[in-house]
Write a structure and sequence with these properties.
By secondary structure, this protein is mainly α. Helix 3 crosses helix 5. The radius of gyration is 18 Å and the shape is elongated. It binds adenosine-5'-diphosphate and nickel (II) ion.
Length: about 220
């Protein structure tokens, strides 16, 4: 097996290349933040295999429909196989890639702390100030309105599991972003999610206050 640093560098180059041609909500910077956050959560929790967490975070979005590569697990197996990584780590990294998604609606397998950590890190990046920026960025990319006041906001959402089809970006908060806090797996994730959740709630209060100005008594 190669030196861990060399492995991470090589996998980083692969992911950077795989993500060149798609929307900026999934740019390389999202991956970098998820890697940093996942390693931070692992340090705070004091458990989880470091290499699995780092590779799992780097490769978590590969195979996503927004990426060039379509068969994530196959790509990952090929890539990590050539780097001489153990089959246990490869299986775990693939399981992270397959199970991380919010739209699949699954909770992380409680047996895998590495999946729990990377899933928390990915979800935290959809929350707080960064999450708000990513949501409006994605909504703009899709040509959605920032808000459509004609469509009633339902909480919980009418259509669970279809948050990518939110009618406006403000609706996306109710379809997904405000639900993430209660889906955190680790105590560290929950602590950070609390802060980011409250920030989004304050943001929405301000948004509706400005939206309604002149119409409310
Ligand atoms: P992930 O990186 O967790 O796989 P997604 O692919 O679901 O995230 O979405 C990428 C980013 O775009 C996230 O921040 C998500 O909240 C946001 N997003 C997804 N669908 C919408 C939407 N319909 N409107 C606004 N933002 C969206
Ligand atoms: Ni992601």
């Amino acid at each position: 097996m190669k030196d861990e640093r060399e492995i991470i560098d090589e996998v980083s180059r692969f992911v950077m290349k795989a993500m060149q041609n798609h929307d900026s909500g999934h740019g390389w910077s999202h991956i970098e933040r998820v890697v940093r956050m996942a390693l931070y959560i692992r340090d705070c929790e004091g458990r989880g295999n470091r290499l699995t967490v780092e590779l799992g975070a780097l490769l978590h979005d590969v195979g996503d429909h927004k990426f060039a590569a379509h068969d994530g697990p196959e790509e990952i197996r090929k890539l990590l196989g050539t780097l001489g990584i153990s089959s246990e780590v490869i299986s775990e990294v693939i399981s992270i890639n397959e199970n991380i998604s919010f739209s699949k609606g699954r909770r992380a397998d409680p047996a895998s702390i590495e999946l729990q950590i990377v899933q928390d890190a990915d979800r935290l990046d959809a929350m707080g100030a960064i999450g708000i920026a990513r949501a409006f960025n994605y909504g703009g990319f899709k040509g959605n309105d920032i808000y459509d006041h004609r469509v009633k906001i339902t909480d919980p959402p009418l259509l669970p599991g279809t948050s990518s089809k939110s009618v406006s970006t403000i609706h996306h908060f109710y379809d997904k972003l405000l639900l993430l806090r209660d889906l955190m797996n680790t105590p560290t994730g929950r602590r950070l999610a609390d802060e980011r959740h409250d920030y989004m709630v304050r943001y929405l209060d301000q948004f509706f206050m400005e939206w309604n100005a002149g119409e409310e008594t």
